[in-house]
Request: fold
Amino acid sequence: MSEELEIRVARNTRDVEAVQNLWNAYWTSLGLAPEFQGFADELRTLPGRYGEPGGLLMIAWDGERPAGTIALRRLSEESCEAKRLFVSPEFRGQGLGQALLNRIIAETRSMGYRTMYGDSLPSMIEAHREYGFRQVGLYSAAPTRERFTSSFFSFRPIKSVETADWL
Reply:
């Protein structure tokens, strides 16, 4: 990663537009229709449910280039969901995905959430386990699983934020 790398909450128009572009690339890479799970509306209304104070929309910039993104939305008083972790192909393999996940985990802790959920591709299962997540059942009323039963999994931290050593 470049020394110019900055991960921040997307609070201005430039940041939000860059996140929209990254999310479009993410969604396209998964081969999903824009209408699936209301993605097109979600994209159009960003930060929407990922806005503060209950959520976060984050972007990583490498100088003037948007490099990656991750988001967080509130599920309940004590739980949240990490969404849309995406790193542009030219920035992969440099630890940016880990940096984004570390940042959102730290933010989750400071926001007082006890449990963080998320869906993941099968190729990322081991990476999530290394962070202290474990596979769980459905946690959302609109799971990605309805279309990708064998391709997506749900995770949550094993420990509460008060005792977690992975935060």
User: Anything to note?
Assistant: The two ends are 21 Å apart (CA to CA). The longest strand covers residues 65-74. The helical segments are 13-30, 39-44, 96-110, 125-130. The CA atoms of residues 25 and 88 lie 8 Å apart.
